[in-house]
Amino acid sequence: MTSVVRPTAVDSGSPVAPERSPNRSEDIFSHLTDSIDRSERKRPLGPVSNFTVEQLPHCVAEIQRSERPNGAIKAFGRSVNAMIGEADYSGLLLRLPQCDFEIAKTDIQYLVNCTYQMSAFAGLDPSDAELTVGAELSRLASLTCQRQPSVGVLSYEDMILTNPVQSDPRLYCLGAVGVEERDFCAGHQLIESELQSAMDALLDLRDLGGADASRCLTQCVARLESAQDVLTRFEDHMSPELFSQFRAFYGKNPYRNTLGPSGRFSARVVAVSVLLVGEELFRQKPQFYWDLYRLSEYYPQTSIGKVFCWLSPDNRDAWLKPAWLEGKADFPRSATISPVVERGGREIERLHEACVCALDRFTRMHRRAALKHTVEPGRPLVGVEASESIEVVLCQRLLTLPP
């Protein structure tokens, strides 16, 4: 590979009309087309963003087909760094509005992650892999972390939350595999949207004195059930074969001791769990909280920081492990809706129980989907450390509910 010039679309050339991004659960994993409609471009870094969207999947495919993949990935790295060196992307990165910066960060992390993953595919040793990533690309990646602290590798936030999946998705694969990859990200975005609505309803109940408790809890149940409907599409309609092809690019960094993007690192799942069952979760599954603080850098930092403030209302540094985690203080019930529920009477308690059951069903379905598509086929685990049990991690938020 001597150049990064590739076709200017990620589509496969199929005569089937490109598909608009799904915005309903029934739209994902439809398998009706192998091309993507990109009618609304979002390219904050200009040529670098154009390359990430339009050419990166073609480069990946070429490296995979190459008889000398080690030479092909090195040439890819040189070309990317040469492209970055042609303009003041550092200055542009620091000037971008936050919404554009988040997409730019996603572009950069997609390039960095791709270079590491394909270096491992080509068999490069760690020093050659770092040289292939290159000084220019590494510098941009470091700048993104300076402006917005993050784990420094492709994260769940990059892949799901700031990836403009609905209009101009960042992907690694072509054709039907790329559409499946897009739908995987879009499905997670739909789930995150439902979780946000559930969280907003619970926060209204907890924090607004005049909130209608019945309305808030009813809305929470509905949103959690909608999130479960999306998960059903993953379990029943996602193609295991296509999933296995794109998932290879979202694994752990093969050269660093870091985890990959995983639904384990959804701050909204954590927030809803704390609001609904935070104290009982600590009583039954304290390891959940220990892991939350230990792996905090993998979560969206702004969102998980707010949860930590709930959990440490009296501490100036909410990121420190709180005293209650070590049994030196009581769990902060003010982080949860429990005090409001206890004052609300039997009907509110019943609705709260319905919310807890809906969260439990969602968690159990997520566990089944993870077992079906990842654990049972023997695929590598991206969000679990080698010392951890996958079963323990998947069951961390499953409580023993009263009969």
Automatic annotation (TrEMBL):
InterPro entries, per database record: Trp/Indoleamine_2_3_dOase-like (IPR037217)
GO molecular function: heme binding; metal ion binding
Biological processes per GO annotation: L-tryptophan catabolic process to kynurenine
Protein name: Uncharacterized protein
Region feature (Disordered): 1-29
